[in-house]
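Usage

Read records sequentially. Each one opens with the input sequence:
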Amino acid sequence: MLSLADVDRLAADAHAGQLDKIGVPYVAHVRAVAEAVAPFGTGLQMAALLHDVLEDTALTADDLLRAGVPFSVVATVRRVSRTEGVAYHAMLRQIVTDHSATLLKIADNAHNSRADRSARLPEADRERLAERYRSARRILWPAAAPADIRAIVATVNPALLDELAEPAEPAEPAG
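and closes with the structure output:
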């Protein structure tokens, strides 16, 4: 059985040389997301470390299973990974049918929404992504307990705590 440290090394190797949208080594993002979900167990931390490997690296779900990643972790990674032909909000509506995937995506969204990160993006990207992440939270947050959301955002993006305290806007209509 792989340890959390083993999965961290696997994620670091998979993302070696990759930079995120603001020029930071990509592995820093997945590690921040893993830290945010630490209260929910090692399995979810493993999924957080691997949450972008299927989209952004050559690794496949079968590769992860062959490496010894537990099936439940791979299932969560698959659930939060984009699928060709599936619109973003449709993907989010699929994610919220699974508790672990929902918590992971909340943590991913919270980290991606950090003001210190978005400030380093061009203005047009900053505004477009800020709206995308806000709209995603309207789908994700109603699917999780407020205490769970609070635990995640307090770790990875405390500025979102104010948003959590605001009355919820209606979720996007299905379709």
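Summary fields computed downstream for this record:
- The longest helix spans residues 123-140.
- The radius of gyration is 15 Å.
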